[in-house]
Amino acid sequence: MRRLLAFLIAASTLVYADEATAESHPATGACAPCAGDVVINCAHRGTGVNDASGSAFPENTAPSFVQAVDEGAEMIELDVVHSSDGVLMVIHDDTVDRTTDGSGCVGDMTQAQLQMLDAGFNTQMASMGVTIPTLSEALAAVSLPFNIEIKINDTAGCPNSNKPQLAADVVSAIEADGRLIVVSSFDAIVLTEVETLNPAIETGFLSTNNNDLDAAEAGGFDAFNLIFFAADEPLIQDAIGRGLKLNVWMLNEPVRMTELIEFGVNMIITDDPDTLAQVQTEYCADYACDDAPPVNDKPASSSDDDGGCNLAPGPQRWSALRWSMPWLLAGLFFLRRRKM
Prior knowledge:
This protein is 38% helix and 13% strand. The chain has twelve helices and nine strands. Strand 6 (203-207), helix 8 (213-218) and strand 7 form a beta-alpha-beta unit.
């Protein structure tokens, strides 16, 4: 009888331990992460812009990239074009007129000539020694991943872009760097060149037209990068269903950011990474496991019929003892009678 009693106690302990372990480590009931944490906060040309508004930081420069990191950016977007001597320079326009104190086509100037110009022009950093960075200088400025947009010249009077050489030089820079760097462009030809040279590099087809989703898919690109106002939930879900990521750009408005996070965008490219960082924080502030289904198709440890990820409620872990208590009491009773 003593052996029977010991067996019952041991069995109860094991069952209880098993249930407690299942509650403490609900591996089969892990939850999907909050969508606000999943979406990538990508700083558009860093943070700041060269215009008459007197921005604190000049776009596409090392100071703007560093500031974007401080504001919560998780990726930096920048633009590259060739100088006349074939160096990848980080500048958005075909000419230097808007973003520097100089004038003329970028493609008509050497690296040395371009870096003599004041890239802090029309910002609070004017005349402070800010220069147009090369791509290698930009990549060295911060340790975040990058989104490199290859610009194709379309300004009359400026040299035509050498698309194969642009693609080759960008691919070489990415391979030499080693970190996560994606490539985007409005030009499908240059993106195809990148894909051909290195299929492992992620590519995104830029557009202002939601009908270009078909072109992004047909080109075999990884993402469709769409102007934010053309994106809606059906389109986002359509892209996801086709195996494409849907990234939006030029989005600075908090309410719309929240809406597109809810719809499932992969990346938001914004002039205001600090605003997006705040939206992400607020979006996930009240997030709980019940807000999302399990990340796999195994049953969660919860009895919740909605498929949520609650851990097993506290009283359940006492079920083993409740089940075994009558047998324990009976064993003690018979053991006592035998002693009598």
